[in-house]
Amino acid sequence: MLVIFFFAKGMKKGLVFLCLWSIIYLVNANDSTRCDALIERAYSAYDKQNFEQALTYFSQAIQIANVKGCVEQKAKILNGYGVIYMKLYDHHRAVKYFFDAYALVEGKQYPKVEISILNNLARICFFEEKPYKAMNYLEKSLQIAQNLGDSTLICRIGINTGITYNNLGKPEQAKEYFQKAINYLQNKPKYILSLQKAQIEYVNNLILRQEYMQAEAFATQILAQHATSTQFPLKSLCYWYLSVAQENQNKLQSALNTLKKADTLFADMDTRVKIFKSTANIYNKLKQPLLALQYKDSIIKYKDSIIVKSNKDKFLNVDARIRLNQKENELELQQARQDKERMFFTLLIVAFVSVILLLFIRAKQQKQKRILALEKEKTAKLLFENQLKEKQLEEDKLLREIELKNNQLSAQILLQSHKNELIEDIIEKLSAISETSKHRQLTTIIHQLKQQIKENSDWKSFLTFFEQINPALLTAIRKRYNYFTISELRILSYIFMDMDTKEIARLLNITDDYCRKKKQRIAKKLNISTSQIRQHLHDISQNEDVENS
Q1: What is d(CA 533, CA 540) in angstroms, rounded to the nearest whole number?
Q2: What was the pLDDT predicted at 301?
Q3: Domain layout of the chain by residue ranges
Q4: How confident is residue 306, by pLDDT bands cut at 50, 70 and 90?
Q5: Which of 145, 230, 252, 256 has the fewest CB atoms lying closer than 10 Å?
Q6: What's the predicted TM-score (pTM) here?
Q7: pLDDT tens-digit series, residues 457-506
Q8: Distance in angstroms (rounded) separating the CA atoms of residues 73 and 508
Q9: How far apart are CA 470 and CA 472, in angstroms?
Q10: Which fold has domain 461-549?
């Protein structure tokens, strides 16, 4: 930084600090985005039960969060650590991470993260059968949600609070939470699972308050509402509560039928055991001890299988924790290496900025030289542009003169054409007189008139005048297209002078249709359309002029 300050003293400090600020801002913005992406990947890996990969992503993210001081992101990461270890039944380590995360956000501007941590602590207390402690965490998270004014969050936390009151044997306190949640969530399809959970636990609440008829009616209503739903994971539990309500009303056969329906559905371990116990109990009441005994045996077998699976899961979890510990050690070493790399890159950035400043100073010293060079270049450019303009004016003047002469020649030719028509008309009228051949003087006059027409239509005379005006055109045509006849060259000359088909036909003493066909033949030889012939001739003339110049 001293190096930067030294170079900054003799120049505009604002530019220097703006450059530094931009670099720091871009690095921080990029790191923050990368940290969020890593957290998202970690939770995605957690959802797929890939805990080792999730821990790797979390550990990479927390390195960025530690350096950048991102409190909210760091709390999310520590909360994620706790969720992973809670899933692995390592509650001691999970609680440690939850408390570390909570210490970062408690009473600060991250209420949703704080609520998530408190609910996870409440879940730990549920697992450890500490409902009063769980209630403390839930009440605190509920207060935060109420301060936020987030009704959906309030209802979802309220459901867990109601369940806790049910477990504490306080159904009257729980009742209000379930009713509020059901009323609010019933028109929100996005939270259908939370609604189902509130409805089913309210059935349990009615049973605890010994309102068995209402419990049976409400459970039946829930099952009817979600009869076709593919999202009803608690359906078996709802059937079990319905059977309990029926059993307490001494509707034993109805309760038994309900339990048989529940037995065909997916259920977790606790619900499955409840179904077996209730079925055995009802068979005892129906005086069918053999069937009751059969279901009691089913409970024992099911618990044994669960114990085997649980032991296997515990073994796998221990193995996973060992690998996670190894991964944490590896990540600590990796973080130390990254700290060194970060220091290296910091020095590299400082060096980079210093080089930029040196280049800036050098550029400033050479600025006057570049300005002088640009001025000289500008002067030379203006001189060249003036020369081009003068040349262009001369060329334009020449083109105007040629155009004028062509127009004059065209007018002269058309005048001759009219004269020829007049002479031909006179010859025709004289020839029509029957005694013309007897008068030698008339015969001589007709001969002289025909000779005049021949002289007026003489190609060589026209060619002489045309080449004087357009010296480059016919030369270029003969050079490029040596297969044109004299007649076609004549037509090309007339087209160049902007004469139409009728005028050309009159000059050549041919029909309009025949003249049109000759123009089409010429266009075919040039491989263009008849409408493009004149422009093509002008292009040839201009190109020839440029080459000659």
Answers
A1: 11
A2: 66
A3: 461-549
A4: low
A5: 230
A6: 0.49
A7: 555 666 666 767 776 677 788 778 877 887 888 888 888 888 888 888 88
A8: 95
A9: 6
A10: Arc Repressor Mutant, subunit A (1.10.10)
The tokens for 385 are 């542009």
Range 188-203 burial, b when 16+ CB lie within 10 A, else e: eeebeebbbbbbbbbb
Rounded distance, CA 218 to CA 204, Å? Answer: 10
Nearest to 262 by CA among 284, 246, 250: 246
DSSP string, 327-388: HHHHHHHHHHHHHHHHHHHHHHHHHHHHHHHHHHHHHHHTHHHHHHHHHHHHHHHHHHHHHH
Q: What would the two tokens of residue 145 be?
A: 């949600």
Residue 485 parent element (H or E): none
What are the Cα distances from residue 202, in Å, to 127, 142, 216, 224, 230? 22, 19, 11, 16, 21
Residues shown for the chain: 549
Residue 307 amino acid letter = I
Q: To which residue do tokens 């349990």 refer?
A: 204
* Interval 296-300 mean pLDDT: 73
User: What is d(CA 442, CA 448) in angstroms, rounded to the nearest whole number?
Assistant: 10
Rounded CA-CA distance 397/233 in Å is 94
Over residues 349-406, the pLDDT tens digits come to: 878 888 887 787 877 778 878 887 888 888 778 777 777 777 676 656 655 655 655 5
CA–CA dist 8, 353 (Å, integer): 11
